[in-house]
Design a protein that fits this description.
With 391 residues, this protein is α/β, with parallel strands linked by helices. It is built from 10 helices and 15 strands.
Length: 391
């Protein structure tokens, strides 16, 4: 091989090697989009208010050190930071807030949204603005409130734990021991608000100093104390928990309810651990549909004072639950609220009737629609208590 051919071969080898190296570089992950955490402020919760024709946006940020789990106990209070921006829209208010931020405000870790009652009439605009922000999460929890948002976003925690250990961010442990209404995620809210005939119940998150204190200081803690009611995107009003106790028996995420049986010298407490419901059409005429609601409960006795038979306990509980449901329905009828989703039942299972008698009309539930309520309790055991004979 002469010198000229040798040089040509070497040149080709160099080109092949360079091409192989370049191709290998393309497969490397690299760090071209690396983000330094100290340059980003992650927002964990947002509050939205509407005052004097202007949106007020509140943001809550949590120190990452408070989120990380450590073996040693925390020795100081976990801090939160709350910011406030104003604007003609939700995103303009967010942009206004970023003017004073030292670092980039990021919504990729948004976990909860709290909307003040003053802004609930514009819930469509609020959800549209948040969903147009690419980083927003559809799994964020959605609440309403009638308290000032600064107060809701600055509540206290137990044992100096992370603010994430609260009803705002983590409602499931609370629901396991006290059932009222299942949490509402943003993706479910958008779906329910658009569903024909559906009534949307948004949990009302407020604060209270009634239950807990640290030393002699009363603690400001979070509490679900009612619901905000929507028919499609139209806000219908607030209803307290005591006015809507009956909705818990129709909650698909039902976990646990303690309820009293009897009265006076003979009383028992029963833990209800399962609640299943069924709605059926009894009859339908051009003037009036007639529905039957059946509730099937499972529970056991946890307290007994005096003497009661099993049949007395079962009868008492069935009567109380029926009264709660009927009272809740009457309250809804009086306010024009379909709290038991009866119109949606007609839409899904009796579409012909719904299309002819409900669709396109100013439909509201009336006292005759829910014609019958049946409650059945299966008392599985009585624990360590001996009931009277005659059971």
């Amino acid at each position: 091989m002469n010198e000229s051919n040798r040089q040509g071969l070497m040149q080709k080898l160099k080109l092949v090697s360079a091409g192989t190296l370049a191709a290998a570089c393309l497969l490397l992950a690299g760090c071209w989009d690396e983000v330094n955490l100290q340059d980003v402020s992650y927002i964990s919760a947002i509050g939205v208010d509407y005052v004097n024709g202007e949106y007020h946006l509140y943001t809550q940020m949590i120190n990452f050190a408070a989120v990380a789990k450590t073996e040693s106990p925390q020795t100081h209070n976990q801090k939160t930071w709350v910011g406030k921006g104003k604007g003609d829209s939700v995103l303009l208010a967010f942009y206004n807030l970023s003017r004073s931020a030292y670092t980039t405000l990021n919504l990729e870790h948004l976990k909860a949204i709290v909307v003040h009652e003053r802004a609930l009439g514009k819930i469509a605009d609020v959800l549209d603005g948040l969903n147009r922000q690419r980083a927003s999460r559809y799994t964020s929890l959605l609440y309403g409130t009638d308290e000032e948002l600064e107060k809701v976003l600055t509540t206290e925690n137990f044992f100096d734990q992370s603010p994430l250990n609260s009803i705002l961010y983590l409602p499931d442990p609370h629901i396991k021991q006290y059932t009222f209404l299942k949490p509402l995620k943003m993706q479910n809210a958008v779906q329910l608000l658009r569903e024909p005939g559906m009534t949307t119940l948004m949990p009302a998150l407020n604060t209270t100093k009634k239950y807990w204190q640290h030393g002699k200081k009363k603690m400001n803690t979070q509490l679900i104390d009612g619901v905000f009611v929507f028919k499609n995107f139209q806000y219908q009003g607030f209803a307290s928990e005591k006015d809507l106790l009956g909705v818990r028996w129709l909650d698909e995420a039902f976990q646990k309810v303690f309820i009293k049986a009897g009265g006076g010298p003979n009383e028992a407490t029963v833990s209800i651990t399962k609640s299943k419901f069924r709605i059926q059409m009894k009859s339908a005429s051009p003037d009036q549909a007639s529905l039957r609601l059946t509730i099937s409960l499972t529970g056991h006795v946890i307290e007994l004072d005096g003497q009661m038979t099993e049949s007395e306990i079962v009868s008492s509980i069935q009567t109380r639950v029926k009264e709660e449901i009927e009272s809740t329905y009457r309250y809804g009828v009086g306010k024009g609220m379909d709290v038991f989703q009866l119109q949606h039942y007609l839409y899904r299972y009796h579409h012909g009737y719904w299309k002819q008698h409900v669709k396109g009309k100013e439909w509201k539930p009336d006292k005759d629609l829910l014609a019958e309520v049946e409650v059945h309790l299966d008392l599985t055991d009585t624990g360590k208590f001996d009931l009277e004979s005659g059971t």
